[in-house]
Amino acid sequence: MEGKPLPVALKVIGGDDDGAMYAAHKKIYPREVGGRFQRLRIAAVFWLLGMYYLFPWINWDGRQMVLFDLPARKFYILGLVFWPQDFFFLAALLIVAALSLFFFTAVAGRLWCGFACPQTVWTEVFLWMENWVEGDRNARMRLDKAPMSARKFRLKATKQFLWVTFSLWTGFTFVGFFTPIREFGPSLMNFDVGGWELFWFLFYSLATYGNAGFLREQVCKYMCPYARFQSAMIDKDTLIITYDEARGEPRGARKRAVKGVAERRAAEQGRDAGPGPWNERGPGPGTRDPMEAGDPGLSAAHGR
Ligand code: SF4
Question: Residue-wise over 270-300: b if at least 16 C-beta within 10 A, else e?
Fold first, then answer.
């Protein structure tokens, strides 16, 4: 966008002065949040994981609906059969996907990260399990601080059992996209699977368990290539997750004295913020400003 560059002051909070490129992992206890964007996120989780876990089990014209048969070099998708010479379509699809990713990131920020990235989606499910077993944020923090007891052991073991079972099912499903899943199940039970099938089953299970159960945001900070160049796709008008320092701590409804983001920006630019519920003419304290209302990350950050 055209316009005067917006100065952004960077403030390192709790950082090391030694220039270290890695910060030791500190466990994050996310609070459960509600609201429209959270409902959308839950819908996305069910929709995306529903496709992932169900598609290999659905038959179409007497064969698996989605099957990438690498030895036969045939790729079955719905009623279509693709051959290696059809990779042109895959390339076209990937180009469209990449351009869409750039476009939506430029306009609306980290939509992919918030709603569709496998790391987000699986981490969300792992968090649900953690929440079901160990309780809400405060209960989890108390449990982690408490000395080992029969109750703590039971809760931790139950959580690990759910995580491992879910991870193994995820690895099994992954291989089911490349080998007929109805044959792979009995073969696995009889320990009669090929080396590659076994490798990918264990590898994908372990990756799911490690990434969604333990690494979580570390994947975004240190491993994800998309995170490295996201900043090149945004400008001052992009909706991004950020910290509104003027609101300070503790988080909660905005105080009347602290104007909304739109109002403060308008004041900086010497113009009127215009009518709206975020304006002082509106309902007042607690009203969400348009920047915030449009950004699921800010909603999450504010515990809503
Ligand atoms: S930063 Fe990378 S790994 Fe993290 S949510 Fe975004 S796309 Fe996924």
Answer: eeebeeeebbeeeeeeebbbbbbbebbbbbb
54 C-beta neighbours (distance < 10 Å), count? 12
pLDDT digits (tens, 9 = 90+) for 26-45: 889 998 888 998 999 999 99
101 lines ligand 1 (CB under 6 A): no
Ligand 1 pocket, residue 239 CB under 6 Å: no
Q: Which residues of 167-187 are buried (b: 16+ CB within 10 A; e: fewer)?
A: bbebbbbbbbebbebeebeee
Amino acid at 284: G
Q: 3-class DSSP state for residue 20?
A: coil
β-bridge mates for residue 63, sequence order: 60
Under the banding of pLDDT at 50, 70 and 90, the label for residue 230 is: confident
Ligand 1 pocket, 215 CB below 6 A?
no
How big is the CA angle at 67 (ends 63 and 69), to the nearest 5 degrees? 105
Atom 3 of ligand 1: nearest residue by CA position? 220
Burial environment of residue 163 by CB neighbours within 10 A (0 to 12, 13 to 18, 19 or more) = buried
Closest C-alpha to 99, from 24, 177, 26, 107 = 107
Q: What are phi and psi of 16, to 5 degrees?
A: -85, 145
Question: What is the distance, to the nearest Å, from the Cα of residue 125 to the centroid of all Cα atoms in its chain?
Answer: 10
Write out the H or E segment, with its range, that includes residue 88.
Answer: helix 87-108
Residue at token pair 């659905």: 58
Express each pLDDT in 124-167 by its tens digit. 999 999 999 999 999 999 999 999 999 999 999 999 999 999 99
Report pTM: 0.77
Of 270, 278, 274, nearest in space to 294 by CA: 278
